[in-house]
């Protein structure tokens, strides 16, 4: 007759305990995705994460931060204040944190919003700031900052050869820097009010997931739908879009898909 030896019992106990732990963590992490990010007057759910929402709950580039009731978003190592999130229209109003103060005191640099995530609202436009310009040859609206030299603004790079550097800012369509002497107060006000972008993330997969009592999440940049109503150890997450690779790179570290039990028998 075969019995389970003491050593095998210990092995089996530790193996089962170790293997069930990720499943428990899965339930806990997915449960957090039902919570909303809240900070000041900002409330947000999918596809954002941060605060009470863990990383698998949102897109990697959409982590929200809260500091003294001010919401911010770090995009490619640049900080943006988030003034408004409308999840009905999937729009945000953002402002570059480094452009909230005096324009002449900023460090001029170019920031780019990832086009796979953000799309500039049609009620806004991009203007080029040309700086370290030759005042004798620059064109369009111009101004001189004591520490930064002569700069001008244009909707094109037609006259960039007379300037050493440039970067872009987003302003309302109603902002026209056509006057010869740039009104710096109007420019600073436009930058402080921020600009609007639309998220280009597809909403339909998450709507379909929610209709089946699933929870929306992300595996890297792939939308997934997770079922947490299954018995313990059988939580499942499936990609909502077919990934570009041959096999989906699912979040094994965060979600558990199946449980394996090994029974080892030995003679006494």
Low-confidence runs: 2-27, 242-268
The overall average pLDDT, rounded, is 75
> If strands are numbered along the chain, what order do they take across the biggest sheet?
3-4-5-6-12-7
Tally of DSSP β-strands = 15
- Beta percentage is 25-35%
Shape: elongated
Describe the structure.
The chain has a domain at 60-199. The strands form 4 sheets. The chain has a 6-stranded antiparallel sheet with strand order 3-4-5-6-12-7, with helices on one face. The relative contact order is 0.17. It has helices at 6-32, 184-193, 204-211, and strands at residues 37-39, 42-44, 64-67, 70-75, 78-86, 91-96, 118-120, 124-133, 141-145, 149-154, 163-172, 195-199, 215-219, 222-227, 236-239. It has 3 helices and 15 strands. It has 268 residues and is α+β, with helices and mostly antiparallel strands. Keywords: Glycoprotein, Membrane, Receptor, Signal, Transmembrane, Transmembrane helix. Residues 1-26 form the signal peptide. Its EC number is 2.7.11.1.
List the helices and strands and how they pair.
Blueprint: H1 6-32, E1 37-39, E2 42-44, E3 64-67, E4 70-75, E5 78-86, E6 91-96, E7 118-120, E8 124-133, E9 141-145, E10 149-154, E11 163-172, H2 184-193, E12 195-199, H3 204-211, E13 215-219, E14 222-227, E15 236-239
Antiparallel strand pairs: 1-2, 3-4, 4-5, 5-6, 6-12, 7-12, 8-10, 8-11, 9-10, 13-14, 14-15
């Amino acid at each position: 007759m075969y019995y389970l030896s003491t050593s095998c019992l210990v092995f089996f106990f530790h193996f089962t305990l170790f293997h069930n732990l990720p499943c428990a963590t899965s339930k806990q992490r997915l449960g957090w995705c039902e919570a909303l990010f809240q900070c000041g007057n900002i409330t947000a759910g999918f596809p954002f994460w941060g605060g009470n929402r863990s990383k698998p709950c949102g897109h990697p580039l959409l982590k929200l931060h809260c500091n003294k009731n001010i919401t911010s978003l770090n995009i490619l190592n640049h900080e943006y204040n988030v003034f408004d999130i409308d999840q009905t229209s999937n729009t945000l109003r953002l402002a570059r944190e480094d452009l909230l103060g005096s324009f002449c005191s900023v460090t001029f640099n170019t920031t780019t919003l990832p086009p796979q995530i953000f799309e500039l609202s049609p009620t806004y436009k991009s203007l080029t700031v040309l700086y370290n310009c030759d005042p004798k040859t620059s064109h369009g609206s111009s101004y001189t900052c004591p520490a930064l030299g002569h700069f001008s603004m244009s909707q094109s790079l037609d006259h960039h050869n007379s300037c050493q550097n440039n970067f872009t800012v987003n302003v309302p369509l109603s902002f026209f820097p056509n006057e010869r002497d740039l009104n710096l107060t109007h420019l600073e006000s436009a930058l402080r009010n921020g600009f609007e972008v639309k998220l280009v993330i597809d909403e339909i997969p998450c709507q379909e997931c929610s209709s089946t009592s699933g929870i929306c999440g992300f595996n890297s940049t792939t939308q997934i739908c997770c079922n947490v109503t299954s018995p313990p150890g059988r939580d499942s997450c499936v990609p909502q879009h077919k990934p570009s690779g041959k096999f989906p790179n699912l979040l094994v570290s965060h979600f558990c898909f199946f449980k394996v039990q090994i029974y080892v028998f030995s003679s006494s």
